[in-house]
Each structure stands twice: as structure tokens, then as C-alpha cells.
Amino acid sequence: MRQKIVAGNWKMNNTLDEGLKLTSEIVNMVNDEVNTDVRVILAPPFVHLTQVRGLVKDSEKISLSAQNCNENDEGAFTGEISAEMLASVGVQYVILGHSERREYFDETNEQLAKKIDIALANNLKPIFCCGESLEVRENGLFKEFVSNQISDSLFHLGEEDLKKVVIAYEPIWAIGTGKTASTEQAQEMHAVIRELLAERYGADVAENISILYGGSCKPSNAPELFACKDVDGGLIGGASLKSRDFLDIIKSF
Ligand code: PEP
């Protein structure tokens, strides 16, 4: 059985007070309302992590993620955060390769391969994001594009390390735009990704990797997306900032 996951990426939103209020609401609602085996992951900004951890640490269902880490061990990288630092404050996951990081911070597939390695070396589970722009979708090369993102950043890993990675397919044209991929589009790409993993690591490994969908996922479309055979949950941006919407998405399996 693949792990079902709903992860909330808060991006650069919320003051500390707002973030802690949101966390408390989510913790209470998850305790009261969620009786499935879904793993809930919260990815607040770095400066919230320690205090958010204080609120979620007793929850069996909720884990903590960072939104990024640096690819180096330590040193003179002003303003950066290392994987070791994240692990030292109790973080369990790290989102890597989000399209906003690729676009605004020029992160490359090669750099992301290094981030994946340093995350795994510090016992953080990477949530590796991939996905094509509208231009690439429209020119028809999206399967090749996403396959290259995955093979360039992940295929140097051995089987045991690959098994720790969560993949998030996030078509850029659907992120924050209100335009969701159809269930057919989502299922098609998730199946392509799983097949690619099967070719490299074998069907058993591929069958057990969680592949999340991201891009304008909300309570109204989550049930049909999560019902797709190869969609194992969602990476949620905007709707993760409202506790009720986030909970309704979690309950959509
Ligand atoms: C995201 O940024 O990962 C995302 C999926 O955002 P949204 O849900 O707002 O489209």
C-alpha cells in the first residue's frame, strides 16, 4: 500500500502568530476528524519550524517539512539553511525543486541532485517537485521534459534512497492560477512518472513511491484527483492556508 499524503506548502505566508493559529486549528481538526491513514505534512517558513513542531510533535498523523535547503554541508552561505540544521530542529521532510525555486532562484536539475543527496544524508525525506510550463505542455514535449527533471535529479540514487523520496507532479500552468489539471491529464502524467521509475528501479519500487498532484487543488476537485489510480495525494499551496479547506482536502480520499 502506498502512503497517502497531503502536504501544505505555506510558501512565504503567515506571521508566526498566524502560522501557530493555523497549526493549532489543523492539529485539532486532524485529531477530531481524520481517521484514515493519510500522512499530513506542514511546510511552514523556516522561522516557524521550531514552534510549529512544538504543536505537532505529539500528533501521529502530522509531520513537518521545510520548503528548501542548501546543497552544501555548512559554511559561508549567508542567508541559507542546511539540511543538518533542519534535521536538528525535528524536521522530517524537505520540499525540493518547487517551480518557484527553479524559476526565481534558477535552481537546476544538477543542483537539485545535490540537494537530494544532502537531504537524504541527514535523514530528511525529499518531496521532489517536477512539472512543465504551459509552453512545454502546448508544444507537446511535457512527458520528456518531466522525465528529464526526474532522471537528472533522482536517477543517481540507489534503490534504498529512492524509496525515501516523495514525488510531486505540479504543472506550472496550474499553480496558483485556479486552473487545475483534469483528472485525465493528472493520471496520464502520474502513470508516465511511475512507468519511468519502474524502468529504472523495477515495478515493485515504483508501485510503492507516493506521487502527489499539485496545482490549484481544492476541496471541490481533490476527491476526483485523489481517486485517480496513480495519484497518492496532493501538495497544496493556497488552500493549505485555510484550515477548513485543508482539512476537507485531507478528507477527500
Ligand atoms: C504549490 O505551489 O505547490 C501549489 C500547488 O500551489 P497552489 O495549490 O496554490 O496552486
From TrEMBL:
* Protein source organism: Fulvivirga sediminis
Q: Does the keyword Cytoplasm apply?
A: yes
State the organism's lineage: Bacteria, Pseudomonadati, Bacteroidota, Cytophagia, Cytophagales
- Name of this chain's protein: Triosephosphate isomerase
Q: Which molecular function term from Gene Ontology is one that the record holds? A: triose-phosphate isomerase activity
Q: Keyword Cytoplasm: yes or no?
A: yes
Question: Which sites are catalytic?
Answer: H98 (electrophile), E170 (proton acceptor)
Q: Where in the cell is it found?
A: Cytoplasm
Checking CDD domains in the record gives: TIM
Function, please?
Involved in the gluconeogenesis. Catalyzes stereospecifically the conversion of dihydroxyacetone phosphate (DHAP) to D-glyceraldehyde-3-phosphate (G3P).
